[in-house]
Amino acid sequence: MSNKDRQKLIDLADAIRKVTSTKTQALDRLVNAGILNKKGHYTKHYPTLATFQKK
What we know:
Structural class: mainly alpha
Order of helices and strands: HH
Shape: elongated
């Protein structure tokens, strides 16, 4: 990967970080990634993440 390609990825990551999203959009991304289910609970593959969740 060239320096030019790396810079494009860095710029893309910076642009994505600046975009705010709604709770629904964030939940949809986590569901698509397989981290949460549609009810907002952690899937069986990520049980330790639940320990860091605020109650």
